[in-house]
C-alpha cells in the first residue's frame, strides 16, 4: 500500500515569502485597478516565481500495513465450573479463534484470567479488565480492533471511567451460561472475629433464593470443628440470628450449610464457614505449695506476671506436727476456705499445680480424690516433685496416685545434671525446638542438682535428667491432662544460674498443653491458610506415612503426600483454586480450611447475566450475546466482521472488530514539481510577453 502527497520546502522562510507574496499581490491589484497593459502576463510571472520559491514536490510513501490487535479474554473463575459453562467456553473460544485467523490483517491475543490456582485474588473476585489492561499495555490504541470477553457475566473489576476504555475499540461479551437460571445462597451477615472460651457467640446469617423465593423456610445445619450436627429451620429472605459456643482457645471453625432448593446452580454457595478465635477471659490457677522453698516465689511471680491469670495460692507455712505453743487464734487472720476451693469451686479452676507437696493431714483424702475426679472430667494438673514425693508421705500414696503418670522408687538423685529433651520430646510440641536444645551434645542451659527417681507407668517422657532418668512426663487421664516434673529446681533457670534456661517458654507451653490449646496438640491434623495457599500439617509422636485426602468446596477429592520437615511435624501445601471450605482427612482426624472471604463476591450470585457488562457495551459500542443462542453444532459462536471505525460494531448475531488501517512507512520518494530551468523560462517568457504588450 502506497501513499502520495504534495510537500513544500520553501527557499525562503515562510514569513519572508508571505511578505513578498503580499507585496506582489498589492502590485497586481494596483495594476488591474489602473488597467495597465500586460498585467495578465505579469501576474503569471509573479505566480510562477511565488510557487517556485515555495518549492513544491511530490512525495510518494511506500507503506507497509500493520496488523490490528484483537484481544480475547477467557474467564477461568470458579463460577465457570457450573453446568456447561466451561465446555461451552472452550467451544466458543475455538470457534472464535478459527474465524479470526481468516483475517490476515489481524493479530489475535488470547488471555486467560480468574484462575484461582495462579492468582491469589481470583478465588474471591473475577478480574477480567485487569487482565485486559495487561494484554493491551504494549499496543497503541489506534491498533486495537476490539476485545471479546468470554465469561458468565460475573465480573467484579469493571472500571468506573469507561471513556478511556472506549478508545480501545468495542468490548464484546459472550455469555456462557443459560438464561433464567435460579440458585440458593447462604450469606454471613455478621460474625465476630473473637469469642470468649466457654461462652457463645452470636452469628447472623441469611438464606436467599434467586430470582424469587422457592420456599418460606429452609433447613440449616450447624457444625463446630467437624463435630456433631445441629439443625434449625431458617426463614428465607430474612436475617436469622444463632448462638454457637466457643469451646476452646485458638481457631474455632463454624460450618453452616443450607439444604438445596428446587433450582440450584451450585452447592458451593450453600455452605459457609466462620473462623472465631477463642480467647480466655481469665485463667484461674490454684497453686498448692507444700512447704516454703526457694522456688515457691518463682512459681508465684511467673503466674502473677500475667494479668490474665487469677491465682489462688494455698501454702502450708506451719505443718500440723509443729508444736511451738502459738495460740490457734493467732495462726491466721481469717479461716482459709479449704472446702470452698477443693470441693465447691474446684471445677472453676483451669489448672491446679502441686508444688513440693507432701501428705501432712492438711488436705483430707476426700479433697485429693476430688482433684483426681476433676482431672478425669477434663481438668489439668501439674505436679512438681520435691523430696517428699520419694517418702512415705508421697502424693502418689493418695487418690492422686490414680492420675499421676510416674511412681516414685523411693530414691533421690542429688547430682549435677542438665535436663535433656528426649527423642520423643523432640516430636512433642511442648518441648520441640526449645531455645538452647541441641540434638547432638549437651544443651546450652544451666544445671539442676536434685531429682526424684521415678518409674513411668503411663504417658510420654519428653525430658530426662540425672542418669537419663525421667524428668518431665505428660499424660492424658480420662478427659483431662497431667504433667509431672520430677524435680523442684526449675527455678534455677529463672534466676539465671549457670546460664539459666527456657523456664518461661517451657512452662507456658506446658500450661497451654494442659489446657488443651489446639496449637500444642501432639497428635493432630491442622491447616493454615495464607491467601489461597493451604498448608496441611500433621503432628504425631510416631512416624506416620499415611497420605491425606483433600476435598474441595465443589466436592472434588485429591491425595496429598505428607513430608516430614522436622521431627513430629509433616506438612503439604496446596493452592486453593476456589473459595469455600476445604476438608482434609487422614482417615482418623479431620481438619477444615476456609479459603477466601466470608462472603466472596465470586459466590454471591453465580447466575449468568449481562447486566454488569451492559454499561461497558453501551460505552464502547460492543455487544452482549449468549453463546447458547448461537451454537449450531460444528461451528458454534457468533459471526465476526471487520468494520469501519465509524460504523456499528455489533448487530443481530454478529460482532464487529474495527479495521484501523494503521501502517508504517518503509520508503519515501521526493520529486520536485517545478524544475529550475522550466521555472526560469516560464517566468522570463511571461515577463517578455508583458513588456511586448506594454510597448504597443
Automatic annotation (TrEMBL):
Keywords assigned by UniProt, alphabetized: Membrane, Transmembrane, Transmembrane helix
SUPFAM superfamilies on file: Class I glutamine amidotransferase-like
CDD domains assigned to the protein according to its UniProt record, in alphabetical order: A4_beta-galactosidase_middle_domain
Source species, domain of life: Bacteria
Stored Gene3D superfamilies: 3.40.50.880
Transmembrane regions: 12-33, 40-59, 673-691
InterPro entries: Class_I_gatase-like
PANTHER family: BLL2462 PROTEIN (PTHR37947)
Protein name: Glutamine amidotransferase domain-containing protein
Amino acid at each position: 500500500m502506497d501513499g502520495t502527497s504534495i510537500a513544500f520546502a520553501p527557499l525562503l522562510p515562510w514569513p519572508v515569502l508571505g511578505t513578498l507574496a503580499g507585496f506582489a499581490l498589492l502590485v497586481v491589484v494596483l495594476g488591474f485597478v489602473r488597467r495597465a497593459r500586460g498585467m495578465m502576463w505579469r501576474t503569471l510571472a509573479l505566480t510562477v516565481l511565488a510557487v517556485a520559491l515555495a518549492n513544491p514536490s511530490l512525495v510518494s510513501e511506500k507503506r507497509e500495513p500493520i496488523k490490528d490487535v484483537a484481544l480475547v479474554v477467557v474467564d477461568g473463575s470458579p463460577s465457570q465450573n457450573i453446568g456447561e459453562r466451561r465446555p461451552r467456553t472452550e467451544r466458543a473460544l475455538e470457534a472464535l479463534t478459527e474465524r479470526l485467523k481468516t483475517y490476515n490483517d489481524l493479530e489475535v491475543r488470547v488471555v486467560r484470567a480468574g484462575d484461582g490456582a495462579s492468582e491469589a485474588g481470583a478465588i474471591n473476585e473475577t478480574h477480567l479488565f485487569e487482565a485486559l489492561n495487561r494484554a493491551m499495555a504494549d499496543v497503541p490504541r489506534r491498533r486495537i480492533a476490539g476485545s471479546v470477553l468470554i465469561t458468565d457475566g460475573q465480573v467484579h473489576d469493571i472500571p468506573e471511567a469507561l471513556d478511556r476504555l472506549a478508545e480501545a475499540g468495542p468490548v464484546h461479551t459472550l455469555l456462557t451460561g443459560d438464561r433464567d437460571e435460579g440458585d440458593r445462597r447462604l450469606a454471613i451477615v455478621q460474625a465476630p472475629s473473637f469469642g470468649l472460651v466457654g461462652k457463645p457467640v452470636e452469628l447472623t446469617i441469611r438464606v436467599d433464593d434467586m430470582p424469587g423465593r422457592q420456599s418460606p423456610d429452609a433447613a440449616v445445619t450447624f457444625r463446630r470443628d467437624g463435630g456433631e450436627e445441629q439443625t434449625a429451620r431458617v426463614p428465607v429472605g430474612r436475617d436469622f440470628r444463632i448462638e454457637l459456643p466457643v469451646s476452646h482457645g485458638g481457631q474455632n471453625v463454624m460450618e453452616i450449610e443450607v439444604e438445596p432448593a428446587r433450582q440450584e446452580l451450585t452447592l458451593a454457595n450453600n455452605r459457609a464457614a466462620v473462623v472465631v478465635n477463642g480467647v480466655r477471659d481469665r485463667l484461674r490457677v490454684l497453686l498448692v505449695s507444700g512447704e516454703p522453698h526457694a522456688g515457691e516465689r518463682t512459681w508465684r511471680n511467673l503466674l502473677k506476671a500475667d494479668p490474665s491469670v487469677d491465682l489462688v495460692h494455698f501454702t502450708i507455712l506451719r505443718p500440723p506436727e509443729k508444736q511451738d505453743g502459738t495460740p490457734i487464734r493467732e495462726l491466721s487472720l481469717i479461716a482459709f476456705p479449704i472446702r470452698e476451693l477443693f470441693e465447691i469451686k474446684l471445677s472453676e479452676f483451669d489448672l491446679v499445680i502441686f508444688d513440693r507437696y507432701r501428705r501432712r493431714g492438711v488436705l483430707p483424702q476426700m479433697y485429693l480424690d476430688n482433684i483426681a475426679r476433676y482431672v478425669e472430667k477434663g481438668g489439668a494438673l501439674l505436679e512438681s516433685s520435691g523430696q517428699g514425693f520419694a517418702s512415705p508421705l508421697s502424693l502418689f500414696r493418695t487418690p492422686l496416685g490414680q492420675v499421676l503418670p510416674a511412681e516414685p522408687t523411693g530414691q533421690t538423685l542429688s547430682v549435677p545434671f542438665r535436663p535433656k529433651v528426649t527423642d520423643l520430646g523432640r516430636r512433642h510440641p511442648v518441648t520441640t525446638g526449645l531455645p538452647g536444645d541441641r540434638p547432638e551434645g549437651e544443651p546450652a542451659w544451666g544445671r539442676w542438682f536434685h531429682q526424684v527417681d521415678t518409674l513411668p507407668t503411663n504417658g510420654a517422657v519428653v525430658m530426662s535428667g540425672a542418669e537419663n532418668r525421667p524428668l518431665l512426663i505428660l499424660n492424658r487421664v480420662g478427659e483431662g491432662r497431667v504433667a509431672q516434673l520430677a524435680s523442684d529446681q526449675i527455678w534455677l533457670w529463672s534466676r539465671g544460674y549457670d546460664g539459666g534456661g527456657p523456664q518461661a517458654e517451657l512452662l507456658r507451653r506446658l500450661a497451654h498443653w494442659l489446657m488443651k490449646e489446639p496449637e500444642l496438640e501432639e497428635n493432630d491434623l491442622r491447616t493454615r491458610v495464607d491467601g489461597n495457599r493451604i498448608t496441611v500439617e500433621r503432628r504425631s509422636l510416631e512416624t506416620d506415612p499415611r497420605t491425606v485426602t483433600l476435598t474441595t468446596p465443589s466436592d472434588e477429592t485429591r491425595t496429598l503426600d505428607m513430608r516430614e520437615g522436622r521431627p513430629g511435624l509433616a506438612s503439604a501445601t496446596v493452592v486453593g483454586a476456589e473459595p469455600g471450605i476445604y476438608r482434609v482427612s487422614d482417615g482418623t482426624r479431620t481438619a477444615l480450611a476456609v479459603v477466601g472471604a466470608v462472603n466472596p463476591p465470586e459466590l454471591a450470585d453465580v447466575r449468568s447475566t449481562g447486566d454488569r457488562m451492559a454499561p461497558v457495551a453501551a460505552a464502547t459500542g460492543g455487544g452482549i450475546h449468549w453463546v447458547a443462542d448461537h451454537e449450531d453444532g460444528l461451528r458454534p459462536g457468533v459471526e465476526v466482521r471487520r468494520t469501519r471505525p465509524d460504523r456499528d460494531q455489533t448487530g443481530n448475531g454478529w460482532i464487529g472488530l474495527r479495521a484501523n488501517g494503521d501502517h508504517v512507512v518503509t520508503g519515501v520518494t521526493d520529486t520536485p514539481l517545478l524544475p529550475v530551468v522550466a521555472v526560469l523560462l516560464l517566468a522570463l517568457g511571461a515577463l517578455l510577453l508583458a513588456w511586448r504588450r506594454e510597448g504597443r
